[in-house]
Amino acid sequence: MIDFSRNKEAGHTPVMQHASLSAFISKAPTVLKPKGPFAIVLLEDAVEVDSTIDHCHSLGFSEVLVFGNRDLLPEDRGAAHLVAQDMHASNAMPEVVNAVIEACPGQWLHYCYNSEYLYFPFCETRNVKELVTFNTEERRDTIMTYVIDLYSKDLGKYSNAVSVDEAYFDKAGYYALQRFTQDGHALERQLDFFGGLRWRYEEHVPWLKRRIDRVSLFRAYKGLTLSGNHTFNDEEYNTYSCPWHHNISATVCSFRTAKALMSNPGSMYAIPHFWWKGSERFEWNSNQLMQLGLMEPGQWF
Length: 301
Description:
- It contains eight helices and 13 strands.
- With 301 residues, it is an alpha/beta fold.
- The protein folds into two domains: 114 residues, Rossmann fold, CATH 3.40.50; 177 residues, no CATH class.
């Protein structure tokens, strides 16, 4: 079993429960720690909730804010704030993230869903606070992340395609296309990235859901908003690097697409397994991802 609690600091703030998003936001200035970064975990189901929260703690986030239906919220994971919120409602993700942005200007924020795990270069020996400090020194307020689909090799044994002990991912098959404005002008330092299960099983994935790029680690400010397609109203926030050199990038290793394909009636019977010649067992470390070029350290050595 993968130990997601490694490097987990003792003495987390006791669990605080909030009846709604609005109730939490009204108290946020007084109940949240003054310094971040903060992690936002969005619960869509009960799969790997505990390991997702523990992983956020292990990376060194000052607060882990968990949003989901009451029956999904854990009671004893050391998460500082549990917020009752329907994550299946229309625009639930941007509603939550934008509310936290508005309440926490100046803080670095990371958002993910349950059964998703942030990995960045050298995360085994360096924490997320060190990461965002270095990125700030490089005059960057964002870190581009790429969603790397995880899946079980044996769907007979794991019918929902989730196994942290036997997780696989695609080591090849990733590509990018130029991103354009609505009137056809190329956007500077912006690309649409594709790959993983959404590429291999694109017939089961709507076009607007196929991108794997997500700026899921960023610094909030008043007026910043996130849309449902994981892009911001600030175009610089959607860029993958600054103009003068390459920057740090990270990955969000995620069972989310595999779960969806195995629960959707249109795809669950059409996919006997996810295994192919490009599959590789996930070793749950950043070096493997860097060696395959799925993220890079930039100037951070």
